[in-house]
């Protein structure tokens, strides 16, 4: 059976993370969970340490400061690759991603997909209790990225995704420098450029009921700026800082 780890970055998710972990392990009992905590002042780190002490499927990385979503995921990916996991999953800590949908992702990875993305903006996908402003930002960001980057993905900003370990080994993670949610755009685009098999499946995204969103104007600006630079660089033959082994855009299923 393939070894699977679900990587979940946390910052002040004390009231949500316990339920997310419980539901994830109930859905995929054979999986492991890796929490990457950025020194949460609300006690999230201490909570997950206690859970890890009671269940050897739970692991924790403690980082000394809040360094952004992208670097948290890169730290988690490196940890997983060093321990020879076969499938590496991204999932939010706030309950917006439904762990019960993980088997759909696993099935596509088992069938040979290199990257599987849970998508809100295809038939069957939906958002619940999400304000219009957030829907507008997400859909506009994906549309702009599709145009600038030549991406075929319908939800390139989605953070609910699973990778084959072989795929992540083809990405030069040292060059991935997006701090915020732009990390999701950057990594998906890099995977597309390798010619990998990228598949999407519909998900139900439920707005968090605990804690506060980490979205900010700085995160939106970073994404807009970097997508523009990457897109212009690709159009004029400059690869930019982020690199992959190959550079071609495959179809997306």
Task: Report what the structure shows.
Residues 239-253 have low confidence and may be disordered. The protein contains eight helices and nine strands. Strands 3-2-1-4-7-5-8 form a seven-stranded mixed beta sheet, with helices on both faces. The protein has a single domain, classed as Spore Coat Polysaccharide Biosynthesis Protein SpsA, Chain A (Alpha-Beta Complex). It is α/β, with parallel strands linked by helices and 253 residues long. Helix 1 links the parallel strand 1 (4-10) and strand 2. The longest helix has 19 residues, at 217-235.
What labels would you give this structure?
Spore Coat Polysaccharide Biosynthesis Protein SpsA, Chain A, alpha/beta, seven-stranded mixed sheet, 253 residues, single chain, globular, two-stranded parallel sheet
Total number of helical segments?
A: 8
Low-confidence stretches: 239-253
What shape does the CA trace take? globular
Number of domain modules: 1
CATH architecture: Alpha-Beta Complex
| Structural class assignment | alpha/beta
- Encode the helix/strand succession as letters: EHEHEHEHEEHEHHEEH
Our Rg estimate from Cα atoms comes to 17 Å
End-to-end distance: 25 Å
Count all strands and give the number: 9
Determine the mean pLDDT: 88
Percent helix range: 40-55%
């Amino acid at each position: 059976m393939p070894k699977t780890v679900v990587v979940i970055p946390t910052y002040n998710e004390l009231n949500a993370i316990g339920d997310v972990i419980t539901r994830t392990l109930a859905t995929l009992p054979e999986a492991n969970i890796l929490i990457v905590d950025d020194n949460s002042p609300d006690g999230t780190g201490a909570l997950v340490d206690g859970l890890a002490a009671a269940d050897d499927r739970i692991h924790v990385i403690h980082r000394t400061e809040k360094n952004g979503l992208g670097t948290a995921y890169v730290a988690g990916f490196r940890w997983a690759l060093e321990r020879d996991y076969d499938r590496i999953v991204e999932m939010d800590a706030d309950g917006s991603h439904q762990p019960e949908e993980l088997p759909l992702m696993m099935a596509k990875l088992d069938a040979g997909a290199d990257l599987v993305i849970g998508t809100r903006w295809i038939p069957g996908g939906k958002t619940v209790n999400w304000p219009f402003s957030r829907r507008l930002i997400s859909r506009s960001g994906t549309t702009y990225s599709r145009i600038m980057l030549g991406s075929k993905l319908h939800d390139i900003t989605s953070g609910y995704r699973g990778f084959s370990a072989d795929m992540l080994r083809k990405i030069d993670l040292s060059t991935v420098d997006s701090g915020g949610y732009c990390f999701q755009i950057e990594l998906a685009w890099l995977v597309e450029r390798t010619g990998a098999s990228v598949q999407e499946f519909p998900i139900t995204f439920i707005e968090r009921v605990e804690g506060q969103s980490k979205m900010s104007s700085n995160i939106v600006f970073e994404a807009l700026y970097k997508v523009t630079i990457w897109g212009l660089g690709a159009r004029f033959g400059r690869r930019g800082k982020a690199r992959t082994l190959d550079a071609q855009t495959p179809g997306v299923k």
